[in-house]
Fold this protein.
Amino acid sequence: MEQFGLTKRCRCPRRAWTNGCPHTWHYAFQWKRRRYRGALDDVLGRHVGGKTEALKEVEKIYDAVRDDTCGKKAGRRTLRQLGETYFDKYISPKTSAPLGRGERYRWNLVVNTIVDGKPLGDYIATEVKKHHVESFVDANRVERTVTVIDAQGKTYQTKRGGVVSTNRSIGRLKAFYNWAIEREYLTENPAQRIHKLREFERERRLEPGEEERLRALTKDDWLWRLRIVAALDTGCRIGELLSVQFKQLRWDLNELHLSNRTTKGLRTRYMPLSQELRAMLDLRRYDPDGQEFGPDAYVFGNEVGERVKNYQKAWSTLRLRAIGHGPHWGPYGRFLPCCRERLAKLNLHMHDLRREAGSRLLERGADLHTVQLFLDHANISTSSRYLKPSKLALHTTIQRIDAQRRARGEAAKWEQDLAEMKKNLQEVPQKCHKLVESTAKRSSEKTATAR
């Protein structure tokens, strides 16, 4: 089993590996200081059961690596064609699900970018080099406005490119090449040494009076008031809140349980309920007909307990009303350019309420580890980088430090020193006047001597 690193990663007993175990063999070896590894069934496209047969197949792979014939599986397929195979076969080890629409969009951005006169996706996959990937980065690092025709034939202008979009696309391209190398389609990763562009950390928090305006506007639309209060009191992501069902509310424990199937970190979370949030959830327990919602109804859904899939339009309308602008609608139900400009200037995202919640916890005395648990961050360094103190918190901190200095008697010392400095400053003009007189006298004497 030790030769070529041949082993299995299943939980079947070792004696069953060669007799009835349906799982694949895995190999791992090195050649010229380079590591080669993979799942044998995926590489061969068929199941290999016995150890002897598996060893023979791995020896063939080793010989191909040694003779520099490995990695020719991609043949003359283009990057676009191999990418289709990638999206058809790849299953995320984290979520056990195929790649979503967002990753498909990033991949299309990569393969449709013009590099040296033709789309990057039209290049043969084995001929893509590092300078091709660098050309893609240079073409997309600057944000630009383009005209887009959607699936319904509607034409509108939107923004493409930018630092964040480029970094995410490069991340997906690197993941594609790692997959292709592991499956023996390719032997090199031209994107491996491409460094990410610098991203500036987002620091947006609610400004003074902004929360009050949002609350005033949601007095009648109390479902949006519920979502805002939940986001500020729990620090949950908006996607996690929209997936909460009534069976996840534990009234006896005063907790909201988030399933590990819906959280970003795939960890179960237990969020305590504040008094305001619990009072609003008590009102939410009943539908418009006065009947109590069933366990499968969505807490932060619509009026009848159905899940809300898209909240962006309603959230943008609420933000425009908060600043007293519109909303004004154009063709196809889109905002007019003036509304989009005001939204860009306001620069308030729903995710900023999560940063506000974590920062408030820190400012009100919670330690960093507690804030990390609230925000469900894997590393505490993420939480420390994520939190942004407000100007009011900075002023409050300085006032508290000044009070501590006065209590220890430090303020009396510097006040005494300051009084002496003021006294010296009052004497300085007299000294300066005498110095000017003496300088003028010496100058006149030199002039008389020269004559």
About this structure: Strands lie at 26-31, 34-39, 114-115, 118-119, 144-149, 155-160, 249-250, 255-258, 269-272. The chain has four domains: 3-70, 79-182, 210-311+350-386, 417-445. Residues 3-70 form one domain. DSSP finds 17 helices and nine strands in the chain.
